[in-house]
Fold this sequence. Notes:
By secondary structure, this protein is an alpha/beta fold. Helix content is 43%, strand content 13%. The strands form three sheets. It has a five-stranded antiparallel sheet. A four-stranded parallel sheet has the order 2-1-4-5, sandwiched between helices. Strand 6 (210-214), helix 10 and strand 7 form a beta-alpha-beta unit. Helix 4 packs across helix 6 and helix 12 (306-315) crosses helix 13.
Amino acid sequence: VCPQKAKTVSSCLNEVKELLLKKTATVVASVAPSFPAALPLAVPELFPAALKELGFNYVEQTSVGAELIAEKQLHLNAQRPVISSACPVVINLVEQYYPHLIPYLSPLVSPMIAHCRYIKNRYPDCITVFIGPCIAKMGEALSEEVKGAVDFVLGFNEVWEWIREDNPDWQAMAAEGFDGYTPGPARFFPLEGGQLLASYMSTDLMARDVQAISGLDNCITLLKNFTSNLDQRPAFTELLACSGGCLGGPAGVSGEDIYVKRSKMMVFYRQENQKSSEQGTKPLLPDALLYRAYKDRQVHLPVPDEAQIKEILSSTGKQKPEDELNCGACGFDTCQEKAVAVHQGRAELQMCLPYMRKNAETLSDMVLQSLPAGVLIVGEDLSIQQLNPMAEKIFDCTSSVLGQPLELLFDPEPFRLALQEMTINESLCHLNENKAIKYIIIPLGQQKAMGVFTDITDGLRQQKELQQVKSQTILRAQEVIKKQMTVAQVIAGLLGETTAETKVHLNQLIKLMEADTLGQEERNDL
């Protein structure tokens, strides 16, 4: 299970909905017998009716297949201890991690497979949909050894939401029973010890020839040690991965504890047994359809030695045993397991949350220490929690102010406003006559706020000096313009006088020239 919920369960709900809308095939639902406990039903008999309303042609009980398996299991002449094969998680554990135990697995299919094969025998072209509390059934339906029996697998939780969305008033409809054969004790199959009861084996806790175990950790512990003291093992061991059996399946809806669920299921089926005994034609299925084979699916990965594990741990900052927090955030129970997974290529170094957090904090601290701006972080009580070297320089203080009230260095009002209204404040102010700063106050969440301060004293001084230079330049320019105008006026006056004198002299010259020309013409006439 991924602790970060990165894995999700695939769903074929939309495909089933589309199939029912088309109405091109006979669709038969196989309902797991745990439904009275897994669903918050006031009247359990309404569930088959609700499924019919959704469009299923037939709604039958998976426990029909459980009865087929139980009877066959009772008559198996096993020469060695047998492990039950009803739980797909147990099958996966054996095939992938304990393949040496495959010979001890019951050769019979699960009730789901048996029932759906029985349905397809009766309706050859039908579509089978298993509805139950187990998400591992989705993988089982696709397994090569049993593929083809079950077409779709839906969880109780999916179908529950579907029913409520399709018809909010569905609980007002008339109750309706299941189609087909009504089994007897096989309906208790999903309980811890239910297979023993269905197979008419002893359910006595003191019995030495049978045992029932539920819970994943308990199953793993037994499988690890199964071949030790093999001669003392019971003839039949029922293993169910979910605590309390299938009643604890993850696709259930009811949030009640396992004991309440068990009680509800027992009460319902006992009442059903009182109403009527077994009904319908007793199911029969060829032996060939009740048996299955198993496959060794173990992946052999390299096993690191102690030195390699230490090297991997060291690379994530785990130098000493006390550094191994075993927090489980990576998905592994211990840091040692995660180191082995890294060596095998099943995990990455960066999957260690404490290591990544420490790296991030180190990087953040480096950035904070090297910032050219002053940074000051305060808590809800407006006490100083952190400041960088530039802040110490701006406020002329040392790290001794940590934990002290903010008002020792700065007006706390902008910080209080940021914390109360969760808004960013930005402004300019003077710390004293000789120092001006620009600040931005940012709320950080978790009742903290950060102030970023920039000393703009030199900038203001330079701006003031620049303004003075500009003013002086303008004055000088105005003086130059004034002088230029004066010179221009003097020059213009001189030019005007000179021009007038020149004009007078030229006119006199012209007159003289004209008089001389006239006298010459008169002399020529004489």
